[in-house]
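Async update (no meeting this week)

Hi team, since we skipped the sync, here's where things stand on the single-chain job. The sequence we agreed to prioritize is pasted below, unchanged from the tracker. I ran it this morning and attached the output directly underneath so nobody has to dig for it. Comments welcome in thread, and please keep replies under the output.
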Amino acid sequence: MLVGGLDVDPANYGETVLNDTVDPSPQRDALELALLQSALSRRVPIFAICRGHQLLNVARGGTLWQDLPTQRPDGLGHSQRGDPHSAGHEIKIASGSLLHRIVGSERLDTNSFHHQAVRRLGRDLRPTARTSDGLVEALEDPTHRFVLGVQWHPEEMLHHPQHHALFAAFVQAVEERAGGETR
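Output:
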């Protein structure tokens, strides 16, 4: 599981820091990128949240919007104020995707606490949820049994069964792999 935190260093996708809102952690990036590459090569289930979602994309050669308010000023407000347990916006989920199978819906209310987002998708990744302004809110690698990245923080919304289901599905994938099932 890759979790939220400081920004992914733009140097990891061939860019320089855009402005002072970008707060990278190069040491954390180096560690997590190495762990992520190892997990991908060993086909370990991966659930990536917020920064983790962005890092997964970068690990596959994708890029990020470094600062949405600067680079996409007409987009939705993706950094909600207030209660992290409440929804900030709705996402539309691709039918037939892993995310769709887990939450059982083509729409989901999510919270939103980020100023960076997936820009250009990395190799083998598919966008499986978007906001009304087109930002990728979930991505998956369909060549793996369970590689799912989400831009929001479902751990803050566990009182909603659909968000809780994400963790249950990840645990199940890990248990199945530990029991000898591989793909």
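Quick observations from my side:
The chain is about 30% helix and 15% strand.
Strands lie at 46-49, 64-65, 89-93, 107-110, 117-118, 126-130, 136-140, 147-150.
Reply here if anything looks off.
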